[in-house]
Amino acid sequence: MALEIRQATSDQIDDIRDLTLRAYAKWVGVTPRKPRPMTADYQAAFSEHRFDCLSCDGVLIGLLETVAQDDELMVVNVAVHPAYQGRGHGVRLMRHAERLAHEADLKGTRLYTNKLMCENIALYERLGYRFEKETFHDQGTVAVHMVRPL
């Protein structure tokens, strides 16, 4: 099993969108509305954000979307295809985000996730992220903001 993380190219946008829809499908019905990554405009995001793709033997199995904000790297989206979840690929992508932040001489990484996505929050805590704040959004959603200094 050959794993590789490479920066995405624009011809992968449709595959990125498809993988994201599959990865987040389990949250539809759990959260009051579809998770934001499911409704994102990836064509527009691709011009403003960095996308890195995790491939296994040439097959896209995960992705990381990031953007530098001030002195931190924002993890906008981390997604793993359902058939490959639970095997450490999300951790691998999060560690890649930390390397990107370090290489860019940033202070750390940050992210936010829906408060109802408890298993994601638990994973981020295990990776060293700490709670920063909660923000309240439309349709009763609550975002948990987390940070990890380098």
From TrEMBL:
InterPro entries: Acyl_CoA_acyltransferase, Bact_Acetyltransf, GNAT_dom. Residues 3-150 form the N-acetyltransferase domain. Keywords: Acyltransferase, Transferase. One of its GO terms (molecular function) is acyltransferase activity, transferring groups other than amino-acyl groups. PANTHER family: AMINOALKYLPHOSPHONATE N-ACETYLTRANSFERASE-RELATED (PTHR43877:SF2), AMINOALKYLPHOSPHONATE N-ACETYLTRANSFERASE-RELATED-RELATED (PTHR43877). This is N-acetyltransferase.
